[in-house]
Write a structure and sequence with these properties.
By secondary structure, this protein is mainly alpha-helical. The protein is built from nine helices and two strands; from the N terminus they run ααααααββααα.
Amino acid sequence: MLKRILVSFILIPLTLIAIIKGEVYFFSMSLILSTLCLWEFYTIFESKNIYSLKTLSILVSLLFLTITYVHGPQNIIYFLGFIVIIISAEIFRKEKRSILNPILSVFGLIYITIPFYLMIALEKDFRIVLFVVVLVWVCDSSAYFIGKFFGKRKLSEISPKKTVEGAIGGFVLTLVVALIYHYVQADFITLKDAAVCGLLIGTLGQIGDLFESMLKRFTEVKDSSHIIPGHGGVLDRLDSLIFVIPLLYIYFSFIR
């Protein structure tokens, strides 16, 4: 617990600075985090003898995100070309060849890289990304602490430590903070924005957490890595965020 809190005091300010400064700061952070998430994602599946084209897929992710940053988010068509490259590379692989390898490689890019691509697109107004990140933090932290101290009923067999009380507490506090955010920044976050984002993040954020727990349960690992003391891996910390970003991008870009 102490390690978890101390590390948070370091990482949270750095993240906020990158979001608020935007531009190359946010882009650089996105490249680092997406690379670490992909590396962890592909690595945990090696315990099941599924060997993705890890290096190639990470290079594709970096190139795709860079194209997005330089030329704009409308260049998603490049992503389809990269998928062809990955599938072709598996055909000429000499060892550990399997149809599951390119499937996992492409799924990793969809699961992790695409949300970062959408987040870079949303960063045109850093206030949106800041709003979303704050709500995800609230949801994750409140669900964790409420579940730890007050949880009694298991939420799912997928993750035995998650509780119904924690899930409800995370949902309620996320919605409350979203509404408070509206009253603090009423000129930017409307009541509709607060309600929609609070509901989506309060529910889908926790589903994203459970989805990553399901991946870890399948691969029989406890954490995606041990790179962050007290927290586990980067993917363990960002699983909720990457799960909710696609729907929030749709909301802020097309519905709002």
